[in-house]
Each structure stands twice: as C-alpha cells, then as structure tokens.
Write a structure and sequence with these properties.
Layout (H helix, E strand, L loop, with lengths): L8 H5 L18 H16 L4 H6 L1 H13 L6 E4 L2 H11 L3 E5 L8 H8 L4 E5 L8 H7 L4 E7 L11 H8 L4 E5 L16 E5 L11 E5 L1 H6 L37 H17 L1 H21 L3 E2 L12 E4 L5 H10 L5 E3 L3 E4 L7 H12 L3
Parallel strand pairs: 2-3, 2-4, 4-5, 5-6
Antiparallel strand pairs: 1-7, 6-7, 8-9, 9-11, 10-11
Helix pairs in contact: 2-10, 4-10, 5-6, 7-8, 11-13
Length: about 375
C-alpha cells in the first residue's frame, strides 16, 4: 500500500487527544482552533457590545460556505442543523411516497422514517435484517414503481462498510431520491457527495467540531420535492416582518430552518471544516484509510476476528473486532485499563476507529491487548 502524503504539521499540532483514543466514530476530540473559536464567540456574547449579535450569527454563513466547498453542493442548497438527527427528521417528514430504509441502519436513520410513517406522511419499507448492509443488490430486490426514495448511511456503523453511492444511484435511477446519512463518512472519506440528493451530517464525529451543529445539503430535485414540513419562522420570506401573517417558505435550503442556531456551535463547526479544508480531505482520508488497514493487519496477526471490509475503497475509519466467545466486555475493559478508548457493541464486538492523527503504536498496542481475548 502506498503511503499517504504527509499531513501539514499545523494540522497535526492542532489536536491534543490522548494517544489511546480510538473512538472517532463516537465523537472526535476537537482541535484547539475549535476551542479558541468557541471561546472567542462566547467572550463576544459576554460583552454584549453593539453589533455583537450580528457578528455572532454571521458564523452561520461561514459554516455554510465551508460545507458547500467540501460537499460540492451550491451554497443555496446548504442549510445548518443542530444535529444530524434533526436533518434526518426534516427529510423524513418532507418526503412523500414509499421509502426504502435498511433494517440494520443506525437508529438515527430509522426512527425519523418510522415517525413520519406513523404520522401518515409516507410508507416505509425496511430492507434486510440485522448485520445486512444496504447494497445495490438489496435495493434492487426491493424496488417497486411506487418507491420514491432510498435512505442509506454512507458508512455502516456496525462494520465500517462504505455504501456504494454511485452504484445505488445507478440502480434507483434519476427519478428517485437518494438520501444519505453521512455522519460516519463526511470528514473521513473522500467522496462525490453530489451523487446523492441529500446528505446530512453532524459536527461532532470525524469533522471534530464538537456537538450542537451540523449541515444538510440537497440537490435541486430534492429542494423541489422535499417539503419544509417542519420549517419554522426562520425558514420563511421576510422572517423579521412581524405582521401576524403566515409568510411563504424560502426557496433555498434555508426553508428547513426552525429557529436561530447556537453561534458558538456553528462557529466551532466552521473552524473545524476550515481545518479539514486546509489539510485537504484527500490527505486526511488517506491517513484514516491507511490506519484502518494497518489495524486490520495487526488484528489478523493477533488472531482477532475482523468484521470490517478489507478492500480499499470499501471501508472507512471503522474497524470492528469480533469475539465469538462473547467476552467482548472483558476485552473492552482491558483496553480501558491499557488507556485505549473504544466502543463496546454487545457481547461479541468492539468498534475501534482511528483518525489521521492516530499513531501506529496505539494500533499495535490495541491489537496486543485484544490478542489475549481472541
């Protein structure tokens, strides 16, 4: 495997997480740029000076502009959300018809669709079962003339398998919407996100911007078809004209807005996105991919079962170790005692997720600890 290009020293120096941190699929420790941005915005708010409110809320535009550049969607097609789940609820309650959803999706990409179905908004059809990822073949089996959209995660949280978005687009055609929960992929993989009709992500995982912000981007087709069913007062024309009249929804992605977001969270999100741009998503993704590959090799050498894809291009930053004897909890406790942070998934799995700043010594150490439980 060819070594990825060197990351800028300024990028590496911006982070200070402990060496044993292997839990970026849960949350990514923010950079000092994020911390400084949030602190500066909080200080501005504390002063309450003339014009402070306008300066604080200008962080929304800064975050949208950076997300537009990284996602490839036009600025007018980008909106901010306080969390990825919020954006998924917007998509679910705004979509009509029959929607295909993987039964093994992370719950955040299942409950919005179920709740919309319960409200009589659409017809949800679950595909597959537990541990069955959404593939073009699975979608093709469930396609029907009345299916209007397919909802899928860019990266499977259980295994780290990447969805083949171009192939899914080819299978469903241009007439149906491809709606993507991108939170386990955005900031970790290099992809053409514009293959999808909508992507939703949060700031707290691979982007490393902390909690409280995220974004969704929509194609022109999605903007036309997905209604702002949950849109609020900030999503209409002339929102500050308080005339006791219902105003028309905006025509851009801001029509899905409900209220003003936290400028501290959106500013932190913007700082994190800009740092990704500065380092280059290609370089970051290549380092994450190389670390995942090296970790799989270490686990193989240690005799630990691996549930994640082995082929480059099929995996992202998640590597799942398997424990057939049901002793994953004991192995997870041993990792913690060794100073290694990971996620326990039931009795049989541990999810490890390195980032571009993860050292190989940490990956080797983790595999050695787990070898005693294989």
């Amino acid at each position: 495997m060819q070594a990825p290009s060197v990351l800028p020293a300024s990028y590496v120096a911006a982070f200070s997480e402990e060496e044993g941190y292997l839990n970026f699929a849960s949350y990514g420790p923010p950079s000092n740029h994020v911390l400084e941005t949030a602190a500066a915005l909080m200080a501005d708010a504390a002063q309450g000076a003339v014009g402070a409110s306008g300066r604080l809320h200008s962080e929304d535009v800064r975050a949208r502009v950076a997300f537009s550049r990284l996602s490839g969607f036009p600025l007018d097609n980008v909106a901010l959300v306080p969390a990825a789940s919020y954006g998924l609820f917007q998509l679910a309650f705004g979509t009509q018809g029959a929607v295909l959803v993987g039964a093994a999706e992370f719950p955040a990409n299942v409950y919005p669709w179920l709740r919309a179905q319960q409200a009589g908004q659409l017809d949800v059809r679950l595909m597959g079962a537990a541990d069955v990822p959404v593939t073009p073949e699975l979608v093709a089996e469930h396609l029907a003339p009345d299916v209007t959209a397919v909802a899928v995660s860019a990266v499977d949280f259980r295994t780290g398998r990447r969805a083949d978005l171009p192939a899914l687009r080819e299978v469903i055609g241009e007439g149906r919407l491809l709606l993507v929960d991108a939170i386990q992929g955005f900031g970790a993989v290099e992809a053409d996100w514009t293959v999808a009709d909508a992507i939703v992500t949060g700031s707290q995982k691979w982007v490393r911007g902390g909690w409280g912000a995220g974004a969704m981007a929509l194609s022109a087709r999605a903007l036309e078809r997905i209604r702002p069913a949950l849109g609020g007062w900030t999503g209409v024309e002339d929102p500050t004209t308080y005339d006791a009249v219902e105003h028309s929804p905006r025509t851009d992605a801001l029509k899905y807005g409900v209220t003003n977001l936290s400028p501290f969270a959106t500013g932190a999100f913007a700082a994190a996105l800009e740092l990704v741009e500065e380092a280059g998503i290609g370089r970051i993704a290549a380092h994450i991919e190389a670390s995942a590959g090296f970790l799989i090799q270490c686990l193989d050498d240690a005799g630990v079962e691996v549930f994640s894809p082995r082929h480059v291009g099929q995996r992202a930053g998640i590597v799942v170790a398997g424990f057939p004897d049901g002793n994953a909890a004991e192995a997870h406790a041993a990792l913690a005692l060794a100073g290694i942070t990971a996620t326990l998934h039931g009795r049989h799995r541990i999810r490890l997720s390195p980032h571009a700043t993860t050292g190989r010594e940490t990956l080797t150490h983790a595999a050695l600890v787990l070898a005693g439980f294989a």
